[in-house]
Automatic annotation (TrEMBL):
Gene3D superfamilies: Glycosidases (3.20.20.80), Golgi alpha-mannosidase II (2.60.40.1180), Immunoglobulins (2.60.40.10), Oligo-1,6-glucosidase, Domain 2 (3.90.400.10). One of its GO terms (biological process) is carbohydrate metabolic process. SMART domains: Aamy. Residues 172-519 form the Glycosyl hydrolase family 13 catalytic domain. Pfam families: Alpha-amylase. It comes from Dictyobacter vulcani. Signal peptide: none annotated. SUPFAM superfamilies: (Trans)glycosidases, Glycosyl hydrolase domain. This is Alpha-amylase.
Length: 624
């Protein structure tokens, strides 16, 4: 097997880890660490603050408001809002290095009413020498730091992900690479255009393919950024209030959304808050005129400016500035209210602060309570869960990595994946939904990573479509689209032009259609609980697995064989049903095959046990 690096998942210090390390080294850190993470009305909230034990910090205080104003205070005296003093816990934490002791301080803000935005700041100081003073999180190695420390926030509410999301199957469309409509210049190929050039996909091209998308079983579209931008990917907007001319017009987006809604489809837009393009009007004015009202929107010096990942065409916004926040919140509301967009996929969530996303969520939910916010959070799970209450959900990249290693590369076993999944799902707060992703616009195409092995893709898809969470299909994966070259950083090759007509793998497409239809037909796959099953088999038992999804009145059995040889499987189904019998009444004697790679017939259990043969790299699914 060729050595390929799944560079999107390469190990690196996460944004929040870098921020916390820098803030603790400076003296005082908070990192938006609150308990509970998503407070409900009537719940008090405990804040944890972290002090560098080598600094003479003897008192720690927080200053908070509940009326939307900016809290102000210093050294225990509040000038705007109320003040509370933190207490040092007896037990410290391990240091960020061998020589640093971290002291944990805590303070509790009283319970608040529904709809309250709590904003707060924190500082610490020396009683012996009041000149020695620290603001919490006043340094930031990732984005533009605030001289007097960060202002933090949380919102007290009952908001949750819209109910339609759990029934969604999402189709991610990279607009420039999908389709051009009749009467428009045809979509380019990699033979006629460089991979980072414009290929000519349009919104009208998507409208023309809605029949195809609907036939796949899709009921939610996620469009790559449609704002004006100088790049093929669009993740550096030049104008947040108009559709890029190359994609058509504002009217074309209205027509697409209306056509999708008539078919019962939802539409998500990609929203970028961390950075703009260097052609954005505010950046142009800020660079040309230091006295411009937009000068504080960016971090610009005489010769340089801060940019995302040091890419000059992506200058970073100062999202702590009130004017910047209002501009971005207003843009989000604009697409929700005037265009009927159903939700926003939030790009590079770790860039802006938790407080930014707290207020962003308030802006979205106030405009459209049934709108979805789902974030791209490239962080470990302990950091992902801190966004509960600040957005509805997240793209589950930790799960993506495991699925790709298990099915595409077979570097880990199926049993390891199932064990991981149990632990993983248990850490996700109830108020935070997640999306299951096999590939997307930033990572190798699954087929490329699997070296073109369609059976591995099919097995991974069977797993994806029978899991908790909402599945996302990256355009073209369902018809065998791979990529032509490897990449080591920005993987533009995974954004190749869509396959149409005879280029499509019709057998793979039918496989996707069948699985997606199965998910739509049986609510147990969307809302049921999941239980991993003990299983006996021939072959490599670590590459064989089974689980059931179950509700009060039905269950679905999923059996997966990740071996490249057929295996004999035996499951003590009666024992399993006894285990879950407290939740419903199940019949174990007969199972109806609803999906089978080998087209197996219905099964009748013998003495409460189920026995069958499972083909290589395949799935068997049975309904009670």
């Amino acid at each position: 097997m060729t050595q390929l690096v799944d560079f999107f998942f390469s190990p690196y210090a996460s944004v929040q880890t870098r921020r916390m390390k820098a803030a603790i080294e400076d003296g005082l850190a908070h990192g938006s660490q609150i308990t509970p993470r998503d407070p409900l009305p009537g719940q008090a909230v405990t804040l944890s603050l972290f002090v560098n034990g080598h600094k003479p910090i003897e008192r720690v205080a927080i200053y908070y408001t509940t009326d939307g104003t900016e809290p102000q205070g210093e050294s225990g005296v509040a000038t705007q809002g109320a003040v509370l003093f933190a207490e040092k816990l007896a037990q410290g934490l391990a240091g960020i290095d061998a020589t640093t002791e971290i002291q944990t301080w805590q303070v509790t803000i009283p319970a608040q009413e529904d709809g309250t935005m709590v904003r707060y700041r924190a500082d610490g100081w020396s009683v012996q020498d009041p000149e020695q003073h620290w603001y919490a999180d006043s340094v930031d190695p990732v984005t533009i730091a605030q001289k007097k420390g960060r202002c933090f926030a949380y919102h007290v509410d009952h908001w949750e992900a819209p109910s339609w999301w759990q029934d969604a199957v999402v189709y991610q469309i990279f607009v420039d690479r999908f389709n051009a409509a009749q009467g428009e210049p045809p979509l380019h190929s990699e033979e006629t255009r460089g991979i980072t050039e414009f290929f000519g996909g349009t919104l009208n091209g998507i409208i023309e393919k809605l029949d195809y998308i609907q036939s796949l079983g899709i009921n939610c579209l996620w469009l790559s950024p449609i704002f004006e931008s100088p790049s093929h990917h669009g993740y550096n907007p030049s104008d947040y209030h108009h559709v890029a001319r190359r994609y058509g017009s504002d009217e074309a987006l209205i027509q697409l959304i209306e056509a999708a809604h008539q078919r019962g489809m939802r539409v998500l837009l990609d929203f970028i808050a961390n950075h703009t393009s260097d052609e954005h009007f505010a950046f142009v004015e800020a660079r040309n005129n230091p006295a411009s009202p937009y000068a504080n929107w960016y971090d610009i010096t005489d010769t340089n400016y801060r940019s995302y990942a040091q890419v000059r065409s992506m200058p970073e916004l100062s999202t702590e500035e009130p004017e910047v926040r209002e501009y971005l919140y207003g843009a989000a509301r604009y697409w929700l209210e005037h265009y009927g967009v159903d939700g926003l996929r939030l790009d590079y969530v770790p860039g802006p602060s938790h407080a930014f996303w707290t207020s962003f969520q308030e802006a979205v939910k106030t405009a459209r309570p049934d709108a979805l916010t789902i974030g791209e959070i490239t962080s470990p799970m302990p950091e992902i869960v801190d966004y509960a209450g600040r957005m509805d959900g997240f793209m589950d990249f930790p799960l993506s990595s495991r699925m790709r290693q298990t099915f595409a590369r077979r570097n880990t076993t199926l049993q390891e994946l199932l064990q991981f999944l149990d632990q993983h799902v248990s850490t996700i707060p109830e108020s935070l939904c997640f999306a299951a992703v096999l590939d997307n616009h930033d990572m190798h195409r699954f087929l490329w990573f699997a070296e073109g092995n369609l059976e591995r893709l099919k097995l991974a898809t069977a797993f994806q479509m029978t899991l908790e969470g909402t599945p996302i299909v990256y355009y073209g994966t369902e018809v065998g689209l791979s990529q032509t070259e490897d990449a080591g950083k920005e993987n533009a090759y995974c954004r190749g032009p869509m396959l149409w007509g005879e280029q499509q793998n019709s057998e793979l497409l039918a496989y996707y259609q069948e699985l997606i239809a199965l998910r739509h037909q049986h609510s147990v796959l969307r809302t049921g609980k999941r239980l991993n099953l003990a299983i006996e088999s021939t072959g490599d038992t670590e590459q064989v697995g089974a689980y059931i999804r179950y509700t009060d009145d039905t269950y679905m059995l999923v059996i997966l064989n990740n071996n490249e040889q057929p295996v004999q499987v035996r499951i003590k189904l009666y024992d399993v049903l006894q285990q879950i019998s407290g939740t419903g009444n199940y019949q174990a004697t007969r199972l109806r095959s609803v999906f089978s790679s080998s087209r197996a017939s219905d099964l009748i259990t013998k003495d409460g046990c189920l026995e069958l043969t499972v083909s290589p790299l395949s799935a068997e699914i049975y309904l009670s």
